[in-house]
Design brief:
By secondary structure, this protein is an alpha/beta fold. It is about 20% helix and about 20% strand. The chain contains eight helices and 14 strands. α7 packs across α8. It starts with about 45 loop residues before the first strand and ends in a 14-residue tail after the last strand.
């Protein structure tokens, strides 16, 4: 029954997940699990970075590291200035030399708002990154997969760029041409020098949802990931988030902890978006610290507030908020070598009508790139 004047409940303060267990069905949110497009390739859906960047393996071996950008929720609907300012600084980074230059952009979902429409790809994707002359690789977000009407198929805009059978230039890109990618599936593993990136597609429902096939795939990818490389997990819906709009997802925590417990492999870092701010959260599993980043501040105009201070620990989950920025857009740069993963978040000091009174403070942290295994007899609980 709908109560007149009813709205979604606010998220509890100092909590990193909004709902225990499976997210409840609600008439106030879209809970439809959208069907997936047919994959281009065969399981286990691997894509080699070398395909988009010939010579990257030998270059990374020479440099001893691999650097890349990561952020989500970039679509500049309603106010394109925010996305433009973030994109401008990301493009400026490409002027850096050697190991410091990002080699690609790993997009964490929600490329185009509000419904991933093909017609909006020029304004929200092609044109903002017109001179970003590095590959943009992505997992879809909920807005990429949520059809606006019966004439649109879920993810058709995303597939049209990221999953074309043959590389091509879509006429819709106009004066900002970019050659399309042929990713094998909406969820896939990116094989890179020094690091393996497992990318999930968490679909449309609030809190995310995956089917049993993707769950089986996820566990297999954790189990088979090379042990001589760092392991990064990327998904759109966050597992933990101290925000006042979405919060973290118990459903995604359940999916990932099953993969961890069955494979005994721990990710070195987890990248997420969906929430429109930046947070660096840490969780200890048997004395092993796992960082969980929320990086959904890539350009969408509406930012989400924070419900906790730095140092806050969700007593139930053990998730600790180490840094946050709810006031600025920005992006993350990750550098992986044989020993470490360096995380740097660059906030954008906004100007003009977009200017915010709060100082833009960067964030940086370093985590191990070494193999992380769940100790014998331990059970991970996220």
């Amino acid at each position: 029954m709908l109560q007149p004047g009813q709205a979604r409940l606010r998220v509890a303060r100092k909590k990193a997940q909004a709902h225990p267990g499976v997210h409840p069905l609600s008439a106030l949110s879209d809970n439809k699990f959208e069907p997936l497009p047919d994959p281009l390739g065969l399981p286990p859906y691997h894509y080699d970075l070398e395909t988009a960047l010939p010579g990257i393996s030998s270059e990374s071996a020479k440099l001893g590291s691999l650097t890349f950008h990561a952020v989500g929720d970039t679509g500049g609907v309603k106010d394109a200035d925010y996305q433009a300012m973030v994109a401008a600084q990301m493009k400026e980074d490409l002027n850096l030399a050697g190991a410091a230059r990002p080699k690609f952009f790993y997009h964490l979902g929600d490329v185009v708002y509000y419904n991933g429409e093909v017609a909006d790809y020029y304004d929200q994707f092609y044109e903002p990154y017109d001179h970003y002359d590095a590959p943009i690789i992505a997992i879809p977000g909920n807005h990429d997969g949520d059809p606006v009407n019966a004439d649109q198929t879920s993810l058709d805009g995303w597939v049209r760029y990221f999953m074309t059978p043959k590389p091509q230039i879509d006429p819709i890109s106009g004066d900002a041409p970019r050659v399309t990618l042929s990713l094998p599936n909406v969820y896939f593993t990116l094989n890179c020098p020094l690091v393996t990136i497992i990318g999930m597609y968490t679909n449309v429902p609030e809190g995310g949802s995956i089917d049993s096939i993707q769950q089986q795939w996820l566990t297999n990818e954790f189990d088979k990931a090379p042990e001589d490389k760092a392991l990064i997990l990327a998904l759109h819906h966050p597992i933990y988030s101290f925000d006042d709009h979405h919060s973290g997802s118990a459903a995604m925590a359940d999916a990932v902890q099953h993969a961890i417990n069955d494979s005994r492999r721990l990710p070195n870092i987890v990248l997420t978006a969906h929430v429109h701010n930046y947070q660096r959260i840490e969780k200890e599993i048997d004395g092993i610290t796992i960082p969980f980043l929320v990086a959904g501040h890539g350009g969408y105009y509406h930012r989400h507030g924070i419900t906790a201070d730095v140092g806050t620990v969700d007593e139930e989950l053990g998730a600790k908020l180490q840094f946050h920025d709810q006031y600025h857009h920005g992006y993350v740069t990750l550098t992986v070598d044989a020993k470490e993963i360096k995380v740097n978040m660059t906030p954008i000091a906004e100007t003009g009508s977009s200017k915010h009174k709060h100082d833009a403070t960067p964030d940086s942290a370093t985590y191990t790139a070494k193999l992380l295994k769940l100790p014998d007899g331990s059970v991970a609980s996220l």
